[in-house]
Amino acid sequence: MEYGAYKMRIKKEKVKDYIEMHKKEKIWKELMEKIKNAGFKKMIIFQIEQEIVIFEEAQNLKKADEVLSSDEVNKNWEKMINEWVVYYKDPNKGVNIKFIKVPIIFYYSNGKLIH
Q1: What CATH number is given to the structural domain containing 38?
Q2: How many domains does the chain have?
Q3: What pTM was estimated for this model as a whole?
Q4: What would the pLDDT profile of 57-67 be if each residue is shown by its tens digit?
């Protein structure tokens, strides 16, 4: 199993909208099916003020990301969410990026230290 975490920042005035769109009653059912079919086993989103941290787990994370990112339902979801995102400057390339990869320093699961 592979896992990763990513940080992004939501515009202050859009945080409530972002949270609302991720509630069980509001999240697009077809998007949830696409996430499952892409191969994701877990996807957890944490929020502290404007900061969002997304944890993902899949058998093959790169493949799951590729499958999901090429899907039209996901593209429509991303188009909506992208309007709410504050972009970061990539320190290595100087370009605007949506996500910053969060390094894993400790991972405990079911009685075992994974990382």
Answers
A1: 3.30.70.1090
A2: 1
A3: 0.84
A4: 999 999 999 99
